[in-house]
Amino acid sequence: MNLRFKEGQMVKMTGINKYLFLDVDGVLNSVSWYREEWNKDHVYPQGDFDPKCVELVNRIVEETGCKVVVSSSWRTESNLQSIFDKAGLRFKIHSITPFGSHRGCEIQEWLDSQTEPYVYAIVDDNRGMLSHQRKYFIKTNTVIGITDEDARHIINILNRNDMWNDKLNAMIADSMKKHDTTRTNVYRAIKTAFTNYAAAKNAKPLDEAAEISIIKKMRDERWANAETYQTAGRMDLSAAEADEAGILEELLPKEPTKEELNAALLKLALDKGWYDDNEEHNIHPVQIPKNQMGIAVKELKAKYPAADGKKIADLVKANLCN
């Protein structure tokens, strides 16, 4: 199938909503804040909000344009908007999550009710999130509240679609300036694929792993097309598809060698203590506990997002404890 881009086919990005699920205690205040401020003459609710944390959340909202959904137990307050206003939070509350017994489930129930495409981030000191939410979950330290690093992480999650959109626009403009029609078509096709992914119903936010997967699929489709055209004797079309596949290949990170994966697993095992510590051996073989297999695979995949997932899983399996 030929996926050449036509300008009129692009899905507009304006339909992507950005949501920040906001906790209060442990995010906008902290144990250390209460210790320092306990005996000071603060008027409620200002005394429950650390100004430094408040400004970091304001910055997130201002730099991303996100809508805030309160997931904190503070959402029981009937005058919550007034409380936020007095605390110095410069945004209007968009919504609150439904009440249930599990924070992650409450957030998911709210997300499931949405009919438009979205990206989201969760900031909370509570670990109770669903497994598929963890990629978009920033756990704060209850002792210090939200930090500058936390804020940057959240901004990156919420603005990732904007970042790749801007980057691809710049690449398209540069290739057009150089009159490189093939490269322009490829970049436009990538932009369309990314946009369609982000705009799909119930789509997860676009991350590096998804980007790599999409580009790999596009590359493989073009190699398949090239072979089909070659078999049919259309060498001109085969060459065109091969050229596009080559450009897509350039954009993919290098897949690690077997030696690089082995070295990465060894380092991980040393860091985690996953090895035979028998002093009689000069060499301590890697021994990964079976209940840690998922962690090992996830760590290696994060280090080498372009690596084949099956190869990583097979490597980890080969080094499990008996």
**Largest beta sheet: strand ordering:** 3-2-1-4-5
Oligomer: single chain
Question: How many beta-strand elements?
Answer: 5
One letter per element, helices H and strands E, the order comes to EHHEHEHEEHHHHHHH
- Spatial separation of the terminal alpha carbons: 47 Å
Largest sheet: 5 strands, parallel
Give the helix proportion (percent range): 40-55%
Q: Tell me the structural class.
A: alpha/beta
The low-pLDDT segments are 1-14
Helical segment count: 11
Global geometry: globular
Rounded radius of gyration (Å): 24 Å
Average pLDDT taken over every residue:
85
Key phrases:
322 residues; five-stranded parallel sheet; 5 strands; alpha/beta; disordered N terminus; 11 helices
What does this structure look like?
By secondary structure, the chain is of the alpha/beta class. It has helices at residues 31-37, 51-64, 80-87, 103-112, 148-177, 181-199, 208-231, 235-251, 258-272, 293-303, 309-317; strands spanning 17-22, 67-70, 93-96, 118-124, 137-139. Strands 3-2-1-4-5 form a 5-stranded parallel beta sheet, covered by helices on one side. β2 (67-70), α3 and β3 form a beta-alpha-beta unit. α9 (258-272) packs across α10. It is globular and about 85 Å long.
Question: Could you outline the blueprint of secondary structure elements for this entry?
Answer:
Blueprint: E1 17-22, H1 31-37, H2 51-64, E2 67-70, H3 80-87, E3 93-96, H4 103-112, E4 118-124, E5 137-139, H5 148-177, H6 181-199, H7 208-231, H8 235-251, H9 258-272, H10 293-303, H11 309-317
Parallel strand pairs: 1-2, 1-4, 2-3, 4-5
